[in-house]
Amino acid sequence: xxxxxxxxxxxxxxxxxxxxxxxxxxxxxxxxxxxxxxxxxxxxxxxxxxxxxxxxxxxxxxxxxxxxxxxxxxxxxxxxxxxxxxxxxxxxxxxxxxxxxxxxxxxxxxxxxxxxxxxxxxxxxxxxxxxxxxxxxxxxxxxxxxxxxxxxxxxxxxxxxxxxxxxxxxxxxxxxxxxxxxxxxxxxxxxxxxxxxxxxxxxxxxxxxxxxxxxxxxxxxxxxxxxxxxxxxxxxxxxxxxxxxxxxx
Length: 249
Known about the structure:
The protein is mostly helical. Helix content is 82%, strand content 0%. It has helices at residues 3-22, 27-36, 41-51, 53-62, 64-67, 71-94, 97-101, 104-125, 135-151, 156-167, 172-197, 202-223, 228-247. The two termini are 24 Å apart. InterPro entries: TM_pro_TauE-like (IPR002781), TSUP (IPR052017). It comes from Lentzea jiangxiensis. Keywords: Cell membrane, Membrane, Transmembrane, Transmembrane helix, Transport.
């Protein structure tokens, strides 16, 4: 890797860390860059997952005020994310790309629809909720998103936000804070597994980690100031961009 390629990877990490903190889909920035500097697809994917973990943790720390009072949600949903990340990592090294990635655009479309109709659904479903934790449906939805995140991860945050926005009656910024924790652990557990079952480009991991930590803090400062309607709009724009990029690959 040349000096300029290394700089490009760091810059991509900054952008990805910020995008992941605000919405998700940072992988759509870093993964193509790793491919462009010469890494094979699986190595790029594995190294990307590991390299973005510090950025996700940085973003979660930046949203720590919004995480207050959500300890029970974290304890309930975190096992679903971790288990999903394990399954997704195993799928990455055992299944051909076509077997899983063919449904990714469909999943993102569903997530975007959920984000757009969330306010309406919240009003319609509010009288039916006996609690505020999303129930079993959210647990399995987070588990499924964890599988996807462990396998590839692009727009994992969009999927999680779409699910939580509909199933949990809560401010969007607080849900975004929770999303950052869940997706960070999906990347972490998948990354740890990749160390033992796949090839890792450690230089790429280091460069992405440095950039994503900076980006995570920048994303938190920007994202926390966005009103729910604007944040919802950003989610939709990023999600559509993710669909376009995945379809034209």
